[in-house]
Amino acid sequence: MTSNKKLKMALESIKYKRGHLEILDQLLIPDSHEFIPVNDTSDAWRAIKQMQVRGAPAIAIVGCLSLAIELHNKEFDNKQSLVDHICKQLEYLVTSRPTAVNMKEATHRFSALAQALKDDKNYSKDDVKQLMIEELELMLEDDIATNKAIGKNGAEHILGSSSDQPVCILTHCNTGSLATAGYGTALGVVRRLHELDKLNHAFCTETRPYNQGSRLTAYELVYETIPATLICDSMVSMVMKNKGISAVVVGADRVVKNGDTANKIGTYQLAICAKYHNIPFYVACPVTTFDPNMKTGEEIHIEERPHHEMTRVKGVSLAPDGINCYNPAFDVTPAELITGGIITEYGVFLPDELYNCLMMIDKTKHEEFPRSRSRTNFQIFTER
Ligand SMILES: CSC[C@H]1O[C@H](OP(=O)(O)O)[C@H](O)[C@@H]1O
What we know:
This protein has 384 residues and is an alpha/beta fold. It has helices at 4-7, 41-49, 56-73, 79-94, 102-119, 125-160, 186-195, 212-223, 236-242, 267-276, 308-311, 351-360, 378-382; strands at residues 14-17, 20-24, 35-37, 167-171, 199-205, 228-231, 247-250, 254-256, 261-264, 281-284, 290-291, 312-313, 316-317, 330-333, 341-344, 347-349.
């Protein structure tokens, strides 16, 4: 059955065909919906840094697609210079924003794959270039399939504990089609619940100071006529107390080995409020957001953004010049506050089980995901 809910295409933030990449300039949403060209890795670096594109998965996807564009347009003397360029540009893209791990994870996977192809005499320079472009392009379709699995796993887990009644979900920041290749992670769980007619209502926070919630998540929810209410960040305790919230579901920028999770600033206090109100707290993310090379959240570098992003909105001052500002873009939620679990494309895991469960997953048995060569190199990342 194709309900009108499914007829409306989800919003997209990335438009790609070989040799051509455009991204939705998210700084202009919701006032205007404009795409800008990304012609190489420098354009991508700048767009990520300025947050014209943002969201852990989208950052990695746009970074990798910008490299695919560069490889398509550039000639190389030999395999070594080709692979050197790939590795160098991937490392450069990682420097655009430090907290989300997805670009770094992609760098490890694709650098390892490029090196392996270089060392394999069966592949010419042109073979390596073609295969690497194809692998980088797989990020797009792989991400959408991954997000739909996250949505399915998360909705089933939440409904399983709600005696199948429609549920109310509270979410933070933007984790939808504007933070990924499409469908979204935490917002993908909301979409799946809506598709199943099991979403009573969604509450989204403004998410100051960049307002990913009021500008981006509300935009997605209105566009797809998903029943939702926008709240200020300061209202979450009252909403949890009075609005029958069934679960809180947020995204992630980096989940480390013990399950501690870096996510948008304000997530930590959401988790504290959820604990106080005995509401299950979930993190939703692809396994490419997992960084088992960090043991606890203490190791995560928290990006601090410019003060003007707090004190000025579209040119209007919200605070006097001269006031000191502290503007961390993320905080770390300790694993013990992630009481619902971590929702991935392979299932929902308690934080302290996540590492062992992921290490045991045989990805070749999950045919539901497009299988890029690089994905099977998950071990490379964890053995670094
Ligand atoms: C699925 S997006 C994950 C994550 O990224 C966002 O941060 P930003 O908008 O600064 O890139 C936010 O923390 C989301 O939860």
